Amino acid sequence: MKFDGRFGRFGGAYVPEILVPALEQLEAAFIEAQQDPGFAAELGDLLSTYAGRPTPLTRCRNLSRGKTRIYLKREDLLHGGAHKTNQVLAQALLARRMGKTRLIAETGAGQHGVATAIAGALFGLETCIYMGADDVERQQLNVFRMQLMGATVVPVTTGGRTLKDAVNEALRDWTASFETSHYLLGTVAGPHPFPLMVREYQRVIGKEAREQILGIEGRLPDAVIACVGGGSNAIGLFSDFIGDEKVALIGVEAAGKGLSGREHGATILKGRPGILHGAETLVLQDADGQIDDTWSVSAGLDYPAVGPEHAFLKESGRAEYVGVTDDQALAAFVALARGEGILGAFESCHALAHALQLARAGEDRIILVNLSGRGDKDVAQAQTLLGDRERNAA
Amino acid sequence: MTSRYADMFGSRARDGEGALGIFTMLGDPDPGSCLACLDAIVAGGADMVEVGIPFSDPIADGPVIQAAAERALRAGVRTADCLEMIADFRQRHPTVPLGVLTYANLVVARGIDAFCQQLADAGGDSLLIADVPSIEVGPYAAAARRAALDLVMIAATNTPGATLQRIAAAGSGYTYCVARAGVTGADREVHFNGHPALFAALAAAGAPPPSWGSVSPRPTTFARRSIRARPG
């Protein structure tokens, strides 16, 4: 391969040897496409006329406190309902360029699955989505969306029955089918070139946000905040601010039921270096290296590894990572609905919860939060959770 | 190549036959039954034994082996137990080559050097790490050499020539040649198209002896007679 795919000591390509030619082909296609104005033009056209870019930057009129202004980057308004569409369209174009006829994807909350199903339908590619059986259960609406668009959804019943197990199955499928299938990996994790490639395709979020905030406020934000599962929306937002040292980059992980126990998905805060799903990164694991099961109210953050660039940003000290519990995220979900009339994805509400905490002081600060997805998919679950809470309070 | 592989391959070659290796998962369904199974494998005529150390997320393995790993993990089997089982096997079968197949995270969790040394001390002859391809193998090959352990590399019919050179340079013991695309243990028909060319390329690159590897739940997939017919 042309690049080693490392971010500091993290990254690399840890896959069965048989998959290396597929990764080499993908890297070559990616590099070639990056230099092809025709590819950029077609992708740009799709992003604007099909997906709905640029997405707006919305100032929170009621959740901002004192002199603190909170802005939301509205990826929830993108076609498909989440930032996932950005890079899926790009990877589908690459798949077509490589002559692949089938897309494989894994999904947690279902947003990446929906985005892949959209691309499959648009480009006439057979689409197969692996999804943990528990996630199939809690994200029925997205499962049906995928099926409506012609994708096959395969529930994965092995292991913890969540995103990590779906990734395992997708990788296994690809091992047997790489000649005709493209594995449309959903985040900045996995083997090289995925972390690099997905970052470049998600970079549009930060690029737009930077221009927009400069246009509105005349200066850069003090902090940009995004949730981190695998980490694609966060890397997308962070990338164009990494060089601006005065801008704090804050990633928010799922602290689930609390960081003191084992029921969380806070890989950066509680994990240690290891190798999972093709990359050397931070991993939630036991002393032997067996991978831990994770927990989050939000299926999209329920993952025991993280993109290797985040591990590097943490180790280098450039980005800060914090944890937000299920309860705090749910409270932010309600606050966003009541305060601003917006239903945000549970994932994004982790980021918002931290922003609300920072805003309490009311200082003269600009905080930019990536609202990476819409919360329609989470409404039924929210209804149950809020009902439980009321019953418990009674 | 460790002396056990060299002796065994040499003896098989003198008989004009290939060698038969059998895989099983350590600790499946529990350590006691597994040790009895290993004895039976040797008694049944295996020339070499390959054992898995169970991992929670075995991406290169199909449902049969994954289920075996899950049973072992559910039985509480840890890496230390596996090393003990290997030491036990070695006491009872001093000449049968034994290789370990596992995943990178179990190796790095113990420290690459420590893992290799402990495996060698237990009596293991080789290590194959399913998710470490030749582009990442440097530190693992070096640690294996320091521990006098063979590092088995994987080659497939789609492996490009330059990669085969790397595989030849880093690998020792034998070269695991994937019989068909896909994960191991999947119940799919095996075709050997392209393998003569792969074997020739490996030989030209100076790679260790090739071995067909494709674990199948159907014992009829590999008739011993056909294995025996292959040189090396």
Automatic annotation (TrEMBL), chain A:
Cofactor (UniProt): pyridoxal 5'-phosphate
EC identifiers of the protein: 4.2.1.20
Pathway participation: Amino-acid biosynthesis; L-tryptophan biosynthesis; L-tryptophan from chorismate: step 5/5
Annotated PROSITE patterns: TRP_SYNTHASE_BETA
Single Gene Ontology MF annotation: tryptophan synthase activity
Superkingdom in the source lineage: Bacteria
Name of one Pfam family that matches: PALP
Modified residues (N6-(pyridoxal phosphate)lysine): 84
InterPro entries per the UniProt record, alphabetical: Trp_synth_b_CS, Trp_synth_beta, Trp_synth_beta/beta-like, TrpB-like_PALP, TrpB-like_PALP_sf
EC category: lyase
Catalyses which reaction(s): (1S,2R)-1-C-(indol-3-yl)glycerol 3-phosphate + L-serine = D-glyceraldehyde 3-phosphate + L-tryptophan + H2O
Gene3D superfamilies given in the database record: 3.40.50.1100
Keywords: Amino-acid biosynthesis, Aromatic amino acid biosynthesis, Lyase, Pyridoxal phosphate, Tryptophan biosynthesis
GO cellular component terms attached to this protein's record: cytoplasm
Record domain Tryptophan synthase beta chain-like PALP: where: 50-373
Subunit structure comment from the entry: Tetramer of two alpha and two beta chains.
HAMAP family the record matches: Trp_synth_beta
Function: The beta subunit is responsible for the synthesis of L-tryptophan from indole and L-serine.
Family, per entry: Belongs to the TrpB family.
Protein name stated in the entry: Tryptophan synthase beta chain
